[in-house]
Design brief:
Fic-like fold; 6-stranded mixed beta sheet; 3-stranded antiparallel beta sheet; 2 domains; alpha+beta
Amino acid sequence: METNIPLRLQEIIFSSSDAALSRKITKLEKEGKLLKIAPRIYTPNLHEEPKEVIRRNIFKIIGHQYPGSVLSHRSAFEYKPSGSGDLFVTTTYSRKIRFPGITVNLLKGSGPIAGDNLFMEGLYVSQKERALLENLEESRNTGDTSKTLSSGQIEEKLEQIVRVNGEAALNTIRDRAKDIAAELNMEKSYRKLNKLISAMLSTKPSKYLSSPVALARAFGEPYDPARISLFEKLFLELQNREFPSLAEANTSSKPFQNFAMFEAYFSNFIEGTRFSIEEAQEIIHTGRPMLSRDNDSHDVLGTYQIVSNKSEMSITPENPEELIQLLQDRHRIMLSDRLSQHPGEFKVKNNYAGDTEFVDYNLVRGTLIQGFNFYRALSTPFAKAAYMMFMISEIHPFSDGNGRLARVMMNAELVKAKQTKIIIPTVFREDYIGALRLLTRQQQPDTYIRMLQRAQLFSATLHGNDLNAMSEVLTKSNAFKEGDEHILKIV
């Protein structure tokens, strides 16, 4: 039982060997405040069917009861029970564990290896290459009860990789899979994978290919249940797409700072801090705020201080506590002159945008921690950047500065991976806000993802030592324009 969290927010509670805690659980159960829904598992949620509570929390349950296990085979791609309610987990022994609505199939095998991703506390998920090998093992069952996806489904995943990122990416997967196969004694699966990849690269007969049919899903553990469900949908979409690599052109100091100047300018303009570009340049280049607009000037300077620091922008979180610390430190710098907004401190009352209420201030920390699980399971820089930006924007952890901070966190993911950062220019503001709103209100991630991809393609055109030349590209792109009659051009 997590004693630092109110009982009403602990959807599942595990039995304990601690005598005092065990007595407390027994007492609450007798009082009708807890319901036993599975061996050693209780819930204070008396309003939903046990199978719904179990389904929503199944990954947390597995991680707690079988620490060091690996979500594997088809489940490593699907992140949900199959149509028959089966999940497949690799651990040190074989066994079937039946929960209401879900069967967890424990498969004897190797624990996590280098490259496998930590998904929940105690639970890892097979990295892509390992999962491909696992899904090419022989299975006694077929359809939803099989531990493996069909050959057609595996082919579809491989085709998507080569279609988006080219043959080199597929060959990299083949090389990594060969090493894993040797480590885990999966040479037979590797031979099958090698034949599929060779067929796709036209070096082997096409008789090895079949039709593709599947998408993946994931679900998480709720603190703010609605937001965790929404993050799940975005995670699913990002996890099952391949994103092209856009290498950063502004690698040396001067071009990086030139880009950062426009990044700080547009990020503040989009939030209503309006300066002319000449005024913003003067503030940044001199480090002196305009006397008549001290707070607004410090907002621009604070943002620039972070985004122009390549070392700082190369730092991304490894765990939830690091995420929280990064958010608070960067917020403290960005809003250092706005003491009324409590720089570096999470909000103490709820905030809104129109009729949208963001995460309750009591649930900010918990929702960040739970949302981090999906972020951690993503692997490509663009996917991590897109997820991070939306998660921070949607939680809105501070009383002010959330949009700017969300974009800082997004671009830090790209800087660390040496990928092109993303600027949201003035002309693209309504596209940006509309895409966020569509994802928030209608849970449709596609528009949001495509919006960020277009913004990154535009941003890739901004490079070089000449600030004026960069400004000319922005002008030709309509970047400074406002109004529906203008569109973002990529020149």
